[in-house]
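Aim 2 progress. For Protein kinase domain-containing protein, the working sequence is reproduced below.
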Amino acid sequence: MHVPGGRDVRWAPAIADQKRVDSGPDMSHDDSFRSKKFIEFIDTCLIKNYMNRPPTEQLLKYPFIRDQPTERQVRIQLKDHIDRSRKKRDETEYEYSGSEDEEENHGEEGEPSSIMNVPGESTLRREFLRLQQENKSNSEALKQQQMGPQHRDSEAHIKQLLHERQRRIEEQKEERRRVEEQQRREREQRKQQEKEQQRRRDDLRREEERRMAEREQEYIRHKLEEEQRQLEILQQQLLQEQALLLVEERSRLNKQNSPLSITKLSSVDLSGPQSQTPPSQRPLDFQDHKNE
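Predicted structure tokens for this construct:
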């Protein structure tokens, strides 16, 4: 009959464990099956009323169950036990314990035994010693044969590891060299670009200076030309004024030296000062020259 909650799952194993414990110590060689935790676990599983019996999830949380080794631990223990048993079986040395047919032939106490030196020694003892020696030799040879490939495999593995390590070191060196070479090329490229930019800036600066010098020279040239024109104009004006002065001087001298002027002067002296002659009545040649 199925019981809800899994309360009957531990019933049959618990009874079997209890019978094994009650049968005596020769049925159980583990002290854990005599511990208090185990007894409490069994008593809990053997509760007759299944409604009062704890479910499987709660039983699995008991200290006795939690203290049990895991599957991995059991596998490791079994493997270690098999390896130890195999090693002991290969290295076992049997001691000769005698035979029922062999008569005891011991000397007096304190005297050395002469069994090995007596001719016609027991064939059984010699055969046993021979088998024991052969077994020992075979065991050592087998061990050497087993260790030989392992040793060779170990050496090959070590060589392979060293080779892999050396290869990784070489790859790292090569990678570092490539990175350094790339960085060096990038630095050189940046320097070249900076030099090119500096050269362009210098060219632009020199071109700007040249243009400024040309503009300054053009300005100076225009200014000199303007000053030259002004100077020429001033010279022309000066020459014109000099010519006018010269004409006026000549006219005045002509007037003074003419008979009419002499008569006028004498009449002026006689009659006194008169009003000045208006410009319209000046000599004709002076006015014509001025108009020119």
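The helical segments are 11-22, 36-45, 56-59, 63-66, 71-91, 123-257, 259-271, 284-291. This observation will guide construct design in the next reporting period.
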